[in-house]
Each structure stands twice: as structure tokens, then as C-alpha cells.
Design brief:
Distance between the termini: 86 Å
Number of strands: 7
Radius of gyration: 28 Å
Strand order of the largest sheet: 6-3-2-1-7
Strand content: 15-25%
Largest sheet: 5 strands, antiparallel
Order of helices and strands: HHHEEEEEEE
């Protein structure tokens, strides 16, 4: 038996040669809604949350956030750059360091405390989203909400891991 091969170009059946280019989406018309139009729709996640008073649409959550914001502002007003501190954030052990920044930042709402930790347990070197708030070594800096930071006499923790017994 003889077997025959027939070669058919991939574009067979496509009348528009640009239709085969699935990488270029510049010619695709985009569907966009204004914020006002989205707010009026009833079949959105936002509408569901409003109906069920979930998340930011829950008055109890709003009251709690307002109280936390006020507490952060009050605690931040009592902190000074250079103070020794201990940060107690959820799901992390207490971390000691020095207050390097107190105030409002561009990347989040509210008052924040920039801390230079004694050990490399931070997230950055004082730069967040391209803006320098304070200076420290990489992985030694972090921002915490003031309500998670206690200022006081917190000497640097001693590292005994290299000592001989």
C-alpha cells in the first residue's frame, strides 16, 4: 500500500490573516464600566457584599477600623525616632529594634511605625514602592501599625548560638 500525505496550511479557512494572531490584543475592544455604573449593577460581588453587610459594608467592621485608626494615631504620637521597641505582630514572634520612622506613608492609609530590627527578620531596607522612609540593611526594616509596637527599655537580644558550652 502507498500512503499519501496532504499538507494543509494552518491558515486554511481563515479569511483574515490577522485573525490568527492571538498574542496581539491591541485591536480587541475592551469592555469597561465607570465606578458609578458598577455601583448601580445588582449582580456584582460589591452588590452582594452591600446586601449582606460584609467586609467594608459592615457597620461593626467600620467602627472597629475607626477605633484602630484612632488608637494608632494616639500611640504614634507618643513614639519618637530612636526609641527602642518590641513589635508584636500576629503569627510572628516578638521582634526587637529601634523606631526609625513615625507617621503617614504613601503605600497604606493611617499612621505607621518604621522599625530597624536587631536581626534580619524584616522585609526591606526602609524603601517601600521606591520611596525611602528610613535607612537600614536589607531585611532589617519593616512597617508595623503603632498598636502592635511597644516602646520601652528593650535591649538588643543576645545571640548565644555561637558560644561554647
Amino acid at each position: 500500500k502507498q500512503w499519501y500525505q496532504r499538507r494543509v496550511p494552518i491558515t486554511a479557512g481563515i479569511t483574515d490573516p490577522t485573525a490568527a494572531n492571538f498574542q496581539d490584543t491591541s485591536a480587541v475592544e475592551k469592555y469597561e464600566l465607570s465606578k458609578e455604573e458598577y455601583d448601580q449593577k445588582e449582580d456584582t460581588v460589591q452588590a452582594f457584599k452591600k446586601r449582606n453587610k460584609l467586609g467594608r459594608f459592615n457597620p461593626e467592621v467600620q467602627a472597629k477600623l475607626a477605633a484602630q485608626s484612632e488608637e494608632n494615631k494616639e500611640r504614634a504620637s507618643k513614639m519618637s525616632i530612636g526609641d527602642r521597641c518590641e513589635a508584636r505582630t500576629p503569627k510572628q514572634p516578638p521582634r526587637r529594634g529601634q523606631v526609625m520612622f513615625v507617621g503617614e506613608v504613601e503605600f497604606k492609609d493611617g499612621h505607621w511605625v518604621g522599625i530597624k530590627f536587631d536581626e534580619p527578620v524584616g522585609k526591606h531596607d526602609g524603601v517601600v514602592e521606591g520611596k525611602r522612609y528610613f535607612k537600614c540593611e536589607n531585611k532589617y526594616g519593616a512597617f508595623c501599625q503603632p498598636r502592635m509596637v511597644e516602646v520601652g527599655d528593650f535591649p538588643p537580644e543576645m545571640d548565644f548560638s555561637d558560644d561554647e558550652i
